[in-house]
Design goal:
Shape: elongated
Radius of gyration: 17 Å
Number of helices: 6
Low-confidence stretches: 19-40
Order of helices and strands: HHHHHH
Protein name: Lipoprotein
Keywords: Signal
Largest sheet: none
Number of domains: 1
Distance between the termini: 51 Å
Number of strands: 0
Strand content: under 5%
Mean pLDDT: 80
Structural class: mainly alpha
């Protein structure tokens, strides 16, 4: 049980930090509201414009890097609390993760993106963030539902890999804007 809880919470924190690396660095990494942003909906987004993709990727990567330290702190807290089998501390960490995720998603929404491609990445990042919280909550259930946890872990892994691939492809396009 303790290992399962630790694994699910760590997987959730990995989902929160997976996008903090540039695509070429993230190849070694293993993990939203999908509602359109009102300000973005009024703006026509470009498609296949390398300069816009490059600018947007820089914004996403900067924000993600800034948020990564906080997400890694969650991972450390989770590890310590799980080793002590401190259920109350774990619940508190999950509550902090919820708040962190909501804030991160709001900051993602606040980015003024120009490209439809990176806007789609933003939506997937938010979805991954929310999935991380869902996975954390599933790990805290008593008793935990192994099928639910396995399904969520599989979905998180697939989502992280798809996001990584998409970011790498966009980085290749952005490099054409040099």
């Amino acid at each position: 049980m303790k290992k399962l809880l630790l694994a699910s919470l760590c997987m959730a924190s990995v989902a929160l930090t997976a996008c903090d690396k540039k695509p070429n660095e993230a190849a070694t990494t293993t993990g939203t509201d999908n509602q359109p942003v009102a300000t973005q909906a009024a703006v026509a987004l470009s498609k296949d414009v390398a300069a816009d993709i490059k600018s947007d990727l820089t914004q996403i990567q900067t924000l993600s890097t800034n948020k990564a330290k906080e997400a890694l702190a969650f991972q450390n807290e989770v590890t310590q609390a799980a080793q002590k089998n401190d259920k109350a501390a774990l619940q508190g960490i999950v509550e902090k993760m919820k708040s962190y995720t909501a804030g991160f998603n709001k900051e993602l929404d606040a980015l003024t993106l120009k490209s439809s491609e990176v806007d789609a990445v933003r939506s997937k990042m938010k979805e991954a963030n929310n999935l991380g919280v869902e996975l954390s909550e599933a790990g805290l259930k008593n008793p935990p539902d192994m099928n639910e946890i396995n399904t969520l872990q599989k979905k998180a892994t697939e989502m992280q890999q798809a996001l990584l691939t998409e970011m790498q492809n966009l980085q290749t396009k952005a490099n054409a804007a040099k």
